Amino acid sequence: MPDCQHGLIADETETDDESIIGDEAHIVARSDDGPRGVSDLTPEDRDKYDNLVLLCRKHHKIVDDQPGFYTVEKLKEIKALHEAWVKESLHLDKEKEKDDLNYASYIDTIAKTFDFDSWDGWTSSLVSHGQPSIRYKKLKELQTIPNFIVSRFWPKRYEELEASIFNLKNVLNDLIKVFYKYADEGAIDKAKETDEDRTIRTRKFYKIDEWNPELYNKLSEKFDYHVSLVEDLALEMTRAANLVIEKIRKYISPKYREEEGKLLMTSGPHMDFSWKTFKVEYKTDEKKENHPYHGLKSFMTERAGRDLHYGEGVDTHYLPKRFEP
């Protein structure tokens, strides 16, 4: 019955099967003198599926006490609408199950490539020692993620989840580009040839052979800016990944990373020889946006308003050059 909230089946137990607690009711009564009993249906047809409905005891009594309102036609209409709803619901459940499996497969690849389980271990080198570094093998793995994300057949069922994944992709894209700008090219060449586990460090480009204090100071400032930008992008990547995890828990599995928790980052050693572990996340108002990361140029300014940042200011040297007509 429409809007009836009474359960008709009690769940099975460890020792017994489920129990049908609803009433099997007849649309045309079993006998001619029953509710809606006047009919050409044979006694055999009156006990067949087409003439039966399953009701709670309350509504069973109501439809039998009020046959003038609950006519044969009305009960058949109610049954037909319910059957259509069940069929559509089962179809939707199957579609949802298929979509959820697709999401789970994509998420598994992303989580493994990013190495969520060892996040603090491999990201710490990007925010430590004042010289961002990363293993070349990990860098190559990360470079596969943007194309993987863009090329998937996203179901479009959970738009917030998909938006958070693309937000993470955008941050990673810029982090890789910025890191490569002053990465040690010699180490990259050697890693390509002999050792993918080689660590690729930011080149100390402020070191010059000539005595030129003015140039040295200028390059030193540029180096410091570069280091802080890489560090801030690494922090932003962690925020973006934590947002993805939050959306996975909301739409796919509430138990996702229940034991492991959120992603953390550790930096150090600092001037006092200490190591610091951070939990960085987007603020509530930032999470309301589909893409809290607005691109590299905007981030150079917006990072100062994040929960943690290392540098400030815009350097157009990192931005794509525009060709004038």
Explain this structure.
The structure is a single chain. The protein is mainly α. It folds into two domains: 9-92, no CATH class; 106-318, no CATH class. Helices cover 49% and strands 7% of the residues. The chain has helices spanning 43-46, 57-65, 72-114, 119-123, 136-143, 145-151, 159-181, 185-193, 213-251, 284-287, 296-302, and strands spanning 9-10, 19-20, 23-26, 52-55, 133-135, 199-201, 265-267, 276-278. Strands 1-2 form a two-stranded antiparallel ribbon. A two-stranded antiparallel ribbon has the order 3-4. Strands 5-6 form a two-stranded antiparallel ribbon. A hairpin with an 8-residue loop joins strand 1 and strand 2 (19-20). Helix 6 (145-151) packs antiparallel against helix 7 (159-181) and helix 7 runs antiparallel to helix 9 (213-251). It is rod-shaped. The mean pLDDT is 91.
Please state the structural category: mainly alpha
What is the distance, rounded to the nearest whole angstrom, between the alpha carbons of the first and last residues? 70 Å
Overall tally of structural domains = 2
What is the averaged pLDDT score? 91
Tell me the fraction of residues in β-strands, as a range. Answer: 5-15%
* Strand order, sheet with most strands: 1-2
Provide the helix percentage: 40-55%
Count helical runs: 11
Taking pLDDT < 50 over at least 5 consecutive residues as the criterion, the unreliable ranges are none
CA-atom Rg in angstroms: 32 Å
Main sheet, how many strands, which sense, barrel? 2 strands, antiparallel
For the secondary structure, the number of strands is 8
Element order: H for helix, E for strand: EEEHEHHHEHHHHEHEEHH
Overall body shape: rod-shaped
